Amino acid sequence: MMVDMIWGKKMALVIVDPQRKFSLKVPDWDERMGSAVEGMNMFSRIFRRYGAPVILVRFEGASHCSYEGDDGDDWLPGLETSPSDIVVSKRNMSCFKETDLLKVMQENGIDCALYTGMLTEFCVISTYYASSERGVMPYMGKGATIAYNSNGNEAAQVVCSTVDEKTVERLLSGEQPEPVMPFE
């Protein structure tokens, strides 16, 4: 569901597995990938402007997508990165399982995270739910995920708190009012 308030004080952007090896053999791949990469870049620019962490998660190992190129570990075409970005390696579906992601977040005082990347129904959503179990309030970045199924992003938006760039920028700029519990 779209929300207009973020519960948390310090947010990180986590871009999950934005690697060529997860490219899909579907007719609309270029469109799906291109628009999502634009979304990832838009969020990255906002986070970098405010000095907030941008974390790229790189999957180590073979892909289940039968990618045939020898550049499978490269970032998706057009993805903007920066030397200030933090790279975390993983070997499992959840970005938290057997990785340094939680440690990186704790070291940076992160209490909420915006998840983008691919593939929505697998690695992104498993990380989203694992996040809340570790005390990091999760949010999905609207327009910045790539789904395996053509309806996967819409399904994720139904079950996950999703935010747009205006809501994120309001938090990062310090302009978001303090969240209030509805029954206080």
Q: Outline the biggest β-sheet.
A: 6 strands, parallel
User: What share of residues are in beta strands?
Assistant: 15-25%
Low-confidence stretches: none
Number of helices: 5
Oligomer: single chain
Radius of gyration: 16 Å
Query: Order of strands in the sheet with the most strands?
Result: 3-2-1-4-5-6
How far apart are the first and last residues' alpha carbons, in Å?
23 Å
Helix content: 25-40%
Shape: globular
Task: Give the total of beta strands.
Answer: 6
Helix and strand content put the structural class at: alpha/beta
SSE string, helix = H, strand = E?
Answer: EHEEHEHEHEH
> Mean pLDDT, rounded to whole units?
94
Describe this structure in words.
The protein is an alpha/beta fold. Helix content is 32%, strand content 20%. It has five helices and six strands; from the N terminus they run βαββαβαβαβα. A six-stranded parallel beta sheet has the order 3-2-1-4-5-6. Helix 1 runs parallel beside helix 5. The two termini are 23 Å apart. The relative contact order is 0.23.
